[in-house]
Amino acid sequence: MADDVNGAVRNPRPTTPSRLVVGISGASGVAYGIRALDALRELGVESHLVVTRAALLTLSQETELSADDLMGRADVTHRLNDVGASIASGSFRTMGMLVAPCSVRTMSEIATGVTSTLLTRAADVVLKERRPLVLMVRETPLHLGHLRTMTALTEMGAIIAPPLPAFYARPASIEEMIDQSVGRALDLFGLEWSSVRRWTGLKGATRE
Fold first, then answer.
1. Secondary structure, 3-state, 128-177
2. Do residues 185 and 160 lie in contact, with contact meaning Cβ atoms separated by under 8 Å?
3. CA distance linking residue 107 with residue 27, whole number of Å
4. Cα separation of 108 and 149, whole Å?
5. What angle do CA 101, 105, 110 make, to 5 degrees?
6. Percentage of residues in the chain with pLDDT exceeding 90?
7. Three-state secondary structure along the chain?
8. For residues 192 and 184, what is the distance between their CA atoms, to the nearest angstrom?
9. What is the pLDDT of residues 69-115, one digit of tens each?
10. Distance, CA of 110 to CA of 126 (rounded, Å)
11. Which residues are CB-contacts of 106 (< 8 A; sequence separation ≥ 6)?
């Protein structure tokens, strides 16, 4: 506690722990979740990982990594059906949650509030605690139901952040495109990752 200039005692504002929940669901693009875990480790942010069964199938199709390889990138891993996990409670303080990638099924379940797995329960907790929830939704084209679900989630406080390429960054590889999207998602939590290429203005532009 600290005294102000009038002698009143004030409680210090609690600081947010350097801790982020990462969910990986079954949409194509498991590399986004993988690189998010790598980035958090570089940044010294504690990662809490929860992965769906469909995501593990995607992992086997899109990468050469095993489930153990993936889990080893996180500081803490949680079983999908562990409803008693720390991240299932709002009293467990975090910076928020990133779902990368986020399938339409996962997105839709979060929107209803009727959660059947730890991943969607953790996302619901983040929403009710008014913490940032960033969903890297992977689907195209989108029908009206998808769009209405995204609108509902946005009204609830979530951020819909599809991983779209930033061509101004002149990516030379798929890996650079992935890192740019992941880094921009981490920006939404106030985390600055060195792999992001920032816009600095038009080249050769002159001021009138």
1. HCCCCEEEEECCCCCCHHHHHHHHHHHHHCCEECCCCCCHHHCCCCHHHH
2. no
3. 11
4. 6
5. 85
6. 88
7. CEECCCCCEECCCCCCCCEEEEEECCCCCHHHHHHHHHHHHHHCCEEEEEECHHHHHHHHHHCCCCHHHHHCCCCEEECCCCCCCHHHCCCCCCCCEEEEEECHHHHHHHHHCCCCCHHHHHHHHHHHCCCCEEEEECCCCCCHHHHHHHHHHHHHCCEECCCCCCHHHCCCCHHHHHHHHHHHHHHCCCCCCCCCCCCCCCCCCCCC
8. 9
9. 999 999 999 999 999 999 999 999 999 999 999 999 999 999 999 99
10. 11
11. 23, 25, 26, 27, 52, 99, 119, 120, 123, 135
Looking at residue 56, its pLDDT comes to: 98
Tokens for 121, please give them. 């329960």
Contacts of 92 (CB under 8 A, 6+ apart): 86
CA distances from 63 to 28, 30, 57, 147 (A): 11, 8, 10, 30
Looking at the DSSP assignment, which residues form a beta bridge with residue 20? Answer: 47
Taking the C-alpha atoms of residue 87 and residue 121, their distance in angstroms, rounded to an integer, is 8
User: How far from each other are the two terminal CA atoms of the chain, in whole angstroms?
Assistant: 53
